[in-house]
Fold this sequence. Notes:
The structure holds two protein chains of two kinds. Chain A is α+β, with helices and mostly antiparallel strands. Chain A has helices spanning 84-88, 122-132, 234-248, 253-256, 291-300, 318-337, 340-345, 367-381, 394-410, 416-430, 476-491, 565-580, 583-588; strands at 2-5, 15-21, 28-29, 34-39, 44-48, 51-58, 65-67, 71-80, 138-141, 151-157, 164-165, 170-175, 180-184, 187-194, 201-203, 207-216, 384-392, 436-439, 444-447, 453-455, 457-459, 462-464, 467-468, 505-509, 528-532, 536-542, 545-559. Chain A folds into four domains: 2-132, CATH 2.40.50.100; 138-218 and 231-248, CATH 2.40.50.100; 291-336, E3-binding domain (Dihydrolipoamide Transferase, Irregular); 367-588, Chloramphenicol Acetyltransferase. In chain A, 26% of the residues lie in helices and 25% in strands. In chain A, the strands form seven sheets. In chain A, strands 17, 20, 23, 24, 25, 26 and 27 form a seven-stranded mixed sheet that branches. In chain A, a hairpin with a 2-residue loop joins β21 and β22 (462-464). The longest helix of chain A is centred in the middle third of the chain and has 20 residues, at 318-337. By secondary structure, chain B is α/β, with parallel strands linked by helices. Chain B has three domains: 2-150 and 281-342, FAD/NAD(P)-binding domain; 154-276, FAD/NAD(P)-binding domain, CATH 3.50.50.60; 356-467, FAD/NAD-linked reductase, C-terminal dimerisation domain (Enolase-like, domain 1, 2-Layer Sandwich), CATH 3.30.390.30. In chain B, the strands form five sheets. A seven-stranded mixed sheet of chain B has the order 5-4-3-2-1-6-17. In chain B, a hairpin with a 4-residue loop joins β12 (239-245) and β13. In chain B, α3 crosses α6. Chain B is globular, with a radius of gyration of 24 Å. The model of chain B has no long low-confidence stretch (mean pLDDT 94). At the A-B interface, β13, α3 and α5 of A face α7, β19, α9, β20 and β21 of B.
Amino acid sequence: MIEFKLPELGENIEQGDLVRLMIAPGSTVSAGQSVMELETDKAVLEVPSSVSGTVQQIHVKEGDKIKVGQVIFTVENGAGVRSAPEIAATVAPTEPVGPPVAASQPAGSPAPSSAPSTPASAPAVERAERRAQPQVASEFKLPELGENISQGDLVRLMIAPGTKVSEGQPVMELETDKAVVEVPSSVSGVVKEVKVKEGEKIKVGQVIFTLEGGAPVQAETTRARNAPVEHVSGQHGARLAFQAAIRAEGKTEEQALPPDQPRPASPVFSMPLQLGKVAGTEHRQAIPAAPHVRRFAREVGVDIYEVKGTGPGGRISEDDIKAYAKALLSAAATAAQAPPRAGYFAQPQLPDFAKWGKVERVSMRGVRRKTAEHLAEAWNTIPHVTQHDRADITELEQLRARFAPKAEEAGGKMTVTAIALKVCAAALKVFPQFNASIDIEKEEIVYKQYINIGVAADTDRGLLVPVIRDVDKKNIVELAVELSQLSKKARDKKITPEEMQGGTFTITNLGGIGGVGFTPIVNHPEVAILGLSRSRMEPEWINGKFEPRLILPLSLSYDHRLIDGADAARFLRWIAEAFEQPFLLSVQG
Amino acid sequence: MSETTNLNIAVVGGGPGGYAAAFLAADLGMTVTLIDPEVNPGGVCLYRGCIPSKALLHVAKLVEESHQAKDWGIEFAAPKINLARLRSWKEGVVKKLTGGLGILSKQRKVRYVQGRAEFENSTTLRVTKTDGAEEVLSFDRIIIATGSRPAIVPSLKLDTPRMMDSTGALNLEDIPGSLLVVGGGYIGLELGSVYAALGTRVTVVEMLSGLLPGADRDLVLPLHKRLEKMFEGILLNTTVAAVQDEGTGIRATFEGADVGVSEAKPHEKVFDRVLVSVGRKPNSEIAGLEKTQVQVGQRGFIQVNKQLQTDDLAVYAIGDVVGEPMLAHKAMHEGRTAVEAIAGHKVAFEPNAIPAVVFTDPEVAWCGLTETQAQNENREIKVAKFPWAASGRAITLDRPEGMTKLLIDPQTERVLGVGIVGVGAGELIAEGVLAVEMAALARDVAMTIHPHPTLSETVMESAEVFFGTSTDIYRPKRG
């Protein structure tokens, strides 16, 4: 009874997942025949058997993780070809279909390159032959290097006893009288003994090194094509070359490259290692895009590292940048224009509230729904920031009290809101970007040459915002009268939609209720809103002592797409100062 | 952009970075003043660097080839060298090119001021002209392009013309019998090659374990082999501990592990001349710079962002004075980028590859990622090499020692770096730079028809090596 164990699959591959088993107890296998598919972290491999016979017992199942060396199955009457002792015990295969395999080659002698076989099964035989090599040390001899080159000086050896070599891997550099050539190995395995030294003259045919557990590769025609492939990474090759290089310089690796320590700073000029990483450039890896594409991305304000290239090897084209920029814009536009149903109502499924107690469901039509839609849209579209400030209105309050009767006479009420209207109108003249809107589609900013200010009114129907027109052209008494009338209309449900349109800025005063500050939501498509909270007496440090002053808290929310934080701070400071020194209004307003 | 075109800018320093910046600024409609102590623009590159050294290296190559011609059945008598003639030819080259730049300045209406500039503040310069006159000028923006100078090792300072830096060596006062080159970087090897070709016995001392520190070893090897034949000695892991003027020569004392182990590695030796080429230092000690916000970082480099703007918003800096690599072509690209940034274009200095070329014989050139760098960054790459022994063109030139290699990303098969050693490598690397900048795949390079028979085919063939299908070399694909 012979066991088939998972053979070496390649460098650094120690195990794999069994994806498919191609045999069952009772099947006949021949050496070279694929018996299973194994998925390693590099690829899915077909694993050929190295034994022949009738499968007796299978020790693995699909889905198993299998390690190199693990027993896969056993065969009866089998012909094992994995090691010399097994070969010694081999009898002719009893397998009925397949051709006789080269398993019974005497140990140590190279397998003939053409065993009698049908063409169809030739590859299998090749594999078998390859596998059939007994595990005796084999040799690597200096191959033919070229015409009229019979010898060379060994410049650099890239291997040492114990080094793993694979076919095609460069093992040394040889200087002939024509050039320095890299000599690749034609064998795979672990180097046992190196028979040459650097600096020696080496002749074609001379033994370079011997191998442990290696299989000398035959003429190219017998190179197995679908046997598991050994992977040698560039990194590994480079590492070997590096090790060889420092050995050539008579140093240990530590000397050449002390751990965690760059090479000693020397006054000697050295070509910088990291060309392209010069002063002022970030440590990002080179992006796969042509220079003009990189510049285009910069011009349209796209971070090219965010763009996925559609070209070969992930190359980024100008079209990729355009598509990415378009996607960004339309995402923003979608957020802005999304039907509120999608934006606001498309929510994760609600739980069954009734589960926890009695509930009542009321229709949300009318003002409440409009408010919900409008605010959700504003919130989704506008990157909000709220700036807070305080205005000392002690003086203003005295003025207000003095002029209140005048307003009363005219049929209005001289409120802080009425004064705020005048203050804001003046401020909007000084800071026109607060009296603007963003036209995303046309990529334009719309500066309005008129100042219409909405005032949020708390009604029993909900939040309504009547708009007072041409605020800058009216005096405070006129404003007080108009505000009173509009507010009344709103509360009396007599306000028309027209009277709530065309605003360029909004004021919302919660001071009547209380609070020390809040973050109003910008009334889209306006770009800023001023919130007033309750003014109260507070101790202010003035001229070396605390004085009781009447302080009005101000909260300005704004659209950060259009308005920079510093401008908002300046705008709000201007308003605060205007409240403090109403004279400003006549000077600048 | 339109409002920036009438900006008034100054460029301090007329090297390749400086004049490239000045010319572009003029082309964009700015008013430009270019300030430099020389008669014409050009800087170190044209007056005392790239250009004169290349003129001499051309001569050196001719001499070397005349020797080699013996193998081809052509024998020349030993060359007679007319040093004065050689010098004046070299100076003629310099004059022609710098004069040309002077004319280009005039044509572009760049105001060229011959003198030295000193900062009064971020936007004002006091210029002391070469004729002694002084002028105080104000600008909207100032670009510092003051370059670099040869580094000096204090222990190697001797007040004798026998002690030279690269400037002195290019003056070619005589052909010394023996020359010690301190520093195995590109400047030392280029100038050492010139002197060796003219008949000087050249010894190179390098404190690190190989010539051209920083370059991939496989690129250096063929050069090392050839220099071993050309030079009297190459002393690695060796430093010059002391120099002593003995009147008839300079006695140099060596230090290092290998010193004294053989006759070829003596403890000390007398040389007719010594060339110190241990690197270059940025010229950031600019008078009045402290009156600006400009910050100078470690190793003396002026700190800039990707737009080449210093910490002083009105001041930009480019070229050697802002950092490695100290190469003319890097400076020119930076100069142009700085001007575009000043003009309000959204630009940044962000090349994927800056070529480095050592103009020895054979030349060594590389760009983008190097194997050394990949190793340091623990980056997995595949390297495809094409030895020139398989290049028909290289064989016809009798120079088969070259090699071309591509560094390839194993996942995307994109070309990340290119390294070339061999005759004309400096010209060939341009294709590599383009491949890296365009994010070419190995397949793109392999499928681009290259003219036959040329050395440029080696670039294509190294890409074919990657796929294991190179026509002229048998090397099956690995793994």
